[in-house]
Amino acid sequence: MRRIFQLMVVIFLLVGCSSITGKKPAPVITIEPTEPTEQPTTPTSPETVPQLPKVKTVDWSTAVIPLANQLVQAPGVESGKVLLIDSIKNNTNMAIQSMQATDAIIDAVNNQNVFKLVPQDVVANARKALGLSQEDSLVTRSKAIGLARYVQADYVLYSVISGNQQQSEIEMQLMGAQTGEILWSGTNPIE
């Protein structure tokens, strides 16, 4: 209570100091608005709109079909098992069409008729339940394995695109969902 009283005394002293000095407040001058004078208009050049960066179109099927062929022929891969194909991780300095690339992988592996694929709506619901974003660009092997365990898949196919605009490649790894062991790995350049 004493501190509050001391604080109030200090505040009153400080407020009173400005009235003791006898200074008058600065005068307020009102300025009437004037009519704007017409200035000569100069023709302005039209603004140039910057062009969007060109998107590199990729035929994803040509990049992933050779890898899908290698995958189904890998030793130790059992036919008829459940496979989760996770979305592609982008390790490049460019924007890629990750959904189109993932769809191309799904089509290439599905055409081999070796695995039972986890439907994409089940994958989307599992991602939502685990708090993973559909557009997760920070896909990790541990997230992919956790997702595969959640949907009770036997295998998970983890894919990474690396490189730059001039030269990039796709790498795929088939991992056991229960052990996390890499059973097969392959790379292919992206044209």
TrEMBL record:
Gene3D superfamilies: ABC-type transport auxiliary lipoprotein component. Residues 1-22 form the signal peptide. Pfam families: LpoB (PF13036). GO terms for cellular component: periplasmic side of cell outer membrane. One of its GO terms (biological process) is peptidoglycan biosynthetic process. GO terms for molecular function: enzyme regulator activity. Residues 32-51 are annotated as: Disordered. InterPro entries: LpoB (IPR014094). This is Penicillin-binding protein activator LpoB. It comes from Arsenophonus nasoniae. The gene is lpoB.
